[in-house]
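Human: If only I could read backbone structure tokens as easily as an amino acid sequence. Take your time, and here it is.
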Amino acid sequence: MKFTAAEVDFIRTELGIPVSAEEKDEETLEKIWEAACEIEIEESNRLDELTEKGRIAVDLVTKLGEQ
């Protein structure tokens, strides 16, 4: 999976998951997907409009789900 620099920064900073720009480890990708889903669910239930953090999480969930 190829991630942009912004996605790598988000995954490392917000999700606390070490990741490379071209991550191939399925276990790591699953962890990213699960953590991003948590953010998406939390923000969707709590807010009328997603924050930037929520939007990036949604994009990651979609990107990883399409793989």
Q: What stands out?
A: The longest helix spans residues 26-46. Helices lie at 5-13, 26-46, 52-66. The chain has a mean pLDDT of 95.
